[in-house]
Amino acid sequence: MARNVKLLLTENVDNLGIVGDIVNVRIGYARNYLLPFGYATEPSEELISQLAEKRAKAEKELAERRAQREEMIGKLNGQELTLIRACNDQGQLYGSVTQQDIASALKELGFAVAPREVRLPTTIKRIDTFDIHIKVDSDLEADIKLWVVPDRELETDDQDEMEFDNEGELIVKDKKKEDAPAPEAAAASGSEE
Fold it and tell me: Which of 117, 119, 157, 167 is least enclosed by beta carbons within 10 angstroms?
C-alpha cells in the first residue's frame, strides 16, 4: 500500500505550498486534514488550468508579503524592548516571559511578528537582559535586545559576603575593628593637631 499521495492544492497551505502546486503528502495528512477542509483535491489538467488565475494572485500576494517582511526585518534588527514584570527580591519572576508576550509587545511597536517567529534561547524567568532571535522566514532574521525589569524597586542585600580561608573555615570579621580608623591613620590625625 502506498504511503504518499499526490494532490493538487486548492488553497495556500503554510509550509506546504500555494494554490496550484502539486504536492506529495502522507495519506493520513491528506485524509485527515487537506481533503476534509477542501485545501486539496485529486490533480487533473482541467483543475490546474482553472486554478491558474488564483495561483497568479497568490504568487503576487506572497511577493508583496515578502517585501513587507524584508522591510520590517530591516527596522526590527537591533531594536530594544522593555518588559516590566513582577518578581521577588532576588529577581526571580513570578511567571515567565513567553513568545506571546514578546510578539504582543512588538505588535504594539508596529511590528507584525507571530509568536512562533520569536525564538527564545532559554525560558525567561529572571530580571535580566536577553538577546532574542526573530525568524520570520528561512532567510529573514533579526536580533533584538529584551530588557526584563522589575515592577518595583528591589531591596538590596547590605550584608557583607562571606569569606572562607584555605581550609574552608568561615572568616569572622570584627565590625568594631573595620569601623574604627586604622592605627596609622589615627596617629597621623593626632600629630596634625
Answer: 167
